[in-house]
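In the current project phase, work has continued on tokenised descriptions of protein folds. One protein thus recorded appears below exactly as we store it.

——
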Amino acid sequence: MHSKTTLPPQSQDKHPGKEHEMYPEPKYKAEWYTGANKLKNKVALITGGDSGIGRATAVLFAREGASVAIVYLDEDTDANQTKKDVEAEGQTCLLIKGDIRSQEFCETAVKETITKFNKLDILVNNAAVQYPEESITDITQKQLQKTFETNIYSYFYFAKAAVPHLKKDSVIINTTSVTAYRGSHHLIDYSSTKGAIVAFTRSLSQALSEKGIRVNGVAPGPVWTPLIPSSFSEEKVATFGGNVPLGRPAHPEEIAPSFVFLASRDSSYYTGQILHPNGGEIVNA
């Protein structure tokens, strides 16, 4: 299918981007979604929770009754908006600022969550970076390390720190990508990390099944998040998501319900599985 224009041309200079500078702003509040106490009295920790899919998931988790801790790098304005939105749902939101490439920081973030809420029920590994390159020869060692340290090392760090605190019926949800299944010629390092996340999810689910801890993932297709204008040129942003069968990128609020499903008892017989809200791409996985 040929790409069609889907968004106003725009770009941002700093990665991973700021949601409040995007136009149109991503839809994340899912005003059509009615909570049903599916996560009542639960505590969730979400990386990359300041914007995009992480923010939308934080809001719906709160609407379902969960307290939320969100981890973010340095996007204070976006993080504080997420906090306001979670509090507007009647729940508490803890902001934790730092670099998830550091194992020590990841351990500290889990400790802060436990100190604040006295428990942890849901871990959402979601934060990621991507740096498009036309050739593998353009991917520097520094870029490769940063992409892997952010996108997959941090998932290990958070899971390792969280597991001792997780009890039966707790869940871990990992954000992978459609690129893990179909590849991406200009996101070779990024799509490689997303493939690793699929294998990580399946392996960890087996390792934790006896403890009654479920591990699943979500593999979105094109989603209108700050990563997009901070990654691509204005011209590419303008046609972003235009080549999927639905002909447009998703808004974060269209992806977040998959996380609610995997976090709740609705998915009690799911582990080691990946959901595919991707606009109609067939990935046969």
